[in-house]
Write a structure and sequence with these properties.
45% of the residues lie in helices and 15% in strands. The protein is an alpha/beta fold and 301 residues long. The chain folds into 2 domains: 3-110 and 223-300, 3-Layer(aba) Sandwich (Rossmann fold), CATH 3.40.50; 114-220, Putative methyltransferase TM0872, insert domain (DNA polymerase, domain 1, Orthogonal Bundle). Helix 8 (148-159) crosses helix 9 (164-177), helix 8 crosses helix 11 and helix 9 crosses helix 10.
Length: 301
């Protein structure tokens, strides 16, 4: 695999650096450490008293981040855990308060390229989708065992796909003949369901995009975990501490926006970005994966 397939460029990094001003002895939680790109940028501004706590459910990401961050002047603590457990993980490290919480909710290129993850419809992979291999249920379990109505509801709720009922019907019909075990199989079934016979032209996004998103969200309990992170943040942030969340689809962004808005109303947060910050054309040209990114920031009162 060439290096470009696994290279991960941190999204909205320059804008984040402008918006967040960490003291040299600041304590930062990178709730999704990934390959350490964002933390590396902030870590260079921290001194020996500064601390970065990095969480991730992907063991390979932890390994890559360790290599990326090992020479930073600040203390770096990397933990194999879901960010829904942020409070208990910080308390285990005897850390009560932090200055900054960052969560980049996007997948990195290495994860999409990893055959073991089974996330991509562009290549044929085992239909898994567990970012955290400690989870029991795979995407294959869902598509092969869920009844038609529940499957259609899941695709509509988490994928916002108006063709959810038709897609579910085609999946059920196919699995009666053989189980669906690969991403290529599933993508082909969805394409068949959505593209009418004789239809020409290309859609703006791949027909399987929304169903794959829905399954990934369901497998990894993504929205539930995000709600837990957002719920824990106020008690962990120092006065004037900040939380920044980079989301990549409307379900995540809506959760973040509503949480920040409610906390502002209750005077828990003193300020928040009412309109999301989005990448510049130049950034999207450099990194096409950034095109759907939305950044929202809130500050503790």
């Amino acid at each position: 695999m060439n290096s470009s397939a696994v290279e991960h460029i941190p999204v909205l990094a320059e804008i984040l650096a402008e918006q967040i001003n960490l003291p040299t002895d600041g304590v930062m939680v990178d709730a999704t450490i990934g390959q350490g790109g964002h933390s590396f940028l902030f870590g260079r501004t921290l001194g020996p008293e500064g601390v970065i706590i990095g969480l991730d459910v992907d063991k390979e990401s932890i390994r890559r981040a360790h290599f990326k961050l090992k020479d930073l002047p600040c203390k770096v603590i990397l933990i194999h855990a879901n960010f829904s457990q942020i409070s208990e993980q910080l308390h285990k490290q005897d850390i009560e308060k932090v200055d900054f919480i960052l969560a980049d909710l996007g997948l990195c290129s290495a994860q999409l390229a990893d055959v073991k993850m089974g996330l991509s419809f562009l290549h044929d992979m085992p239909l898994d989708m567990r970012i955290d291999k400690r989870l029991k249920t795979t995407a294959a379990d869902i598509v092969n065992k869920t009844d038609e109505k529940a499957l259609a509801d899941l695709i509509y709720k988490f994928g916002e796909d108006r063709a959810s009922r038709r897609i579910a019907r085609f999946i059920i019909r196919h699995r009666k003949g053989e189980p669906i075990t690969t991403t290529g199989q599933l993508a082909a079934i969805i394409c068949k369901a959505i593209r009418r016979p004789g239809e020409k032209g290309r859609t703006r996004i791949h027909p399987a995009t929304r169903t794959f998103q829905a399954l990934r969200i369901a497998v990894n309990n993504e929205l539930e975990n995000l709600e837990k992170l957002l719920g824990s943040a106020p008690e962990l942030l120092n006065k004037k501490g900040q939380i920044a969340v980079i989301s990549f689809h409307s379900l995540e962004d809506r959760l973040v926006k509503n949480n920040f808005k409610q906390n502002k109303k209750e005077s828990i947060y003193s300020d928040f970005t009412k309109k999301p910050i989005v990448p510049s054309r130049q950034e999207i040209a450099r990194n096409p994966r950034a095109r759907s990114a939305k950044l929202r920031i809130a500050q503790k009162a």
